[in-house]
Amino acid sequence: MAKLTVKDLKEVRNTIDLICNDINKKVVGSKELVRFMTIALVSNNHVLMEGVPGLAKTLLASEFSKHMKMVFKRIQFTPDMLPSDVSGNMIFNLETRKLEFREGPVFTNILLADEINRTPSKVQSALLEAMEEKQVSIGGETRPLPVPFMVIATQNPIEQEGTFPVAEALMDRFLFRLILKYPDRKSEVDILNRKIEDSEPEVTMDVPTVVRLRGQVQSVFASQQVKEYMVDIMRRTRESKKVYVGASPRTTAKLLLASKSCALVHGRSYVTPEDVYYIMKPMLNHRLILRPEAMLDENDEGTDVADRVIDEILSEVQAPK
Asked: What angle is formed at CA 209 by the lines to CA 257 and CA 175, rounded to 5 degrees?
């Protein structure tokens, strides 16, 4: 695969900037969210969007898939679902007298797992193989998923009745946890003034472009100093007195991949410390388990406390120049 030139990288950055602006016209305040979603897509990973109902999480996922020109499917998770409702099942064809496989909604490019914490762990586990191995095993056969494949999951952090906590193993499969908050006054006024039209996207990428970018991620240069900076941050999460369980070595490996993808999205062929800093909060806010005393010392919400702890850790690690 031919290496991307400086001109190619500039075009990638400009295209992604235009896509962020285009989606922001329909989902006000979504520019940075779209950028993080693109980084996850390019690095062959997934995202979890967390926020109360009414913050346009579903619309954002739908618009993102349209701008990437990818097949989009949605699953509304409920307590009575079965794993086969996600991955598919074997049915008996009366005409051929044979068992045939019927694909589930997981066979798509972008899957919106809506309210993932509404369904039991046995159904959540049906996503594990798909997210990590990009395949499903049913009826003794392994079936590959389309390329690219990405899960965008949502959950409501407030309502706990009738919900099932997402297992740590599944949470770790999400590269980023994106926290959606209420818009500020100006943004909410913009929402009322905008004209909602079901029109085709003005700027798009496509599957071949995304696949090509994925093939270029590993060739993005990361200096030894930047790699050591990443390791020092991860090790510091394990040493902090406010953190009970820090980031794992697998998180360190994902951090390098995500930083390289971040560099590509910003039109560069090399990783800078700013790339590492940029993705750190959404990458660690669901991986660190804070000590109870850290939560008691603060009056803010849990996510705000986690962000503050991450800021403290970053301030304690010297970034390379």
From this structure: 30
CB 116 within 8 A of CB 80: no
Confidence of residue 234 (pLDDT cuts 50, 70, 90): very high
CATH number reported for the structural domain that contains residue 135 in this entry: 3.40.50.300
Of residues 181 and 112, more confidence is placed in 112
The conformational region for residue 112 under phi > 0 = left, psi -120 to 50 = alpha, else beta, is: beta
The upper half-sphere exposure of residue 188, i.e. CA atoms within 13 Å in the direction of its Cβ, equals 7
Q: Which two tokens stand for residue 91?
A: 């049915």
Q: With residue 261 as reference, give the H or E element that holds it.
A: helix 249-265
Domain of 231 in residue numbering reads as 215-321
Q: What is the DSSP letter of 119?
A: S
Query: Interhelix angle for 57-67 vs 6-26, to 10°?
Result: 140
201 falls within a domain: no
Six token digits for residue 59: 């619309």
* pLDDT for res 161: 64
CA angle centred on 106, ends 104 and 107, rounded to 5° = 80
Total tally of structural domains belonging to the chain: 2
Residue type for position 210: V
Together in a domain, 175 and 230: no
CA distance 82 to 292: 35
What one-letter code names the amino acid at 118?
R
Query: pLDDT-based confidence at 246, cuts 50/70/90?
Result: confident
| pLDDT tens-digit series, residues 5-27 | 888 889 999 999 999 999 998 89
Q: Cα 255 from chain centroid?
A: 13
Q: How far is CA 302 from CA 278, 291, 292, 297, in A?
A: 20, 11, 11, 11
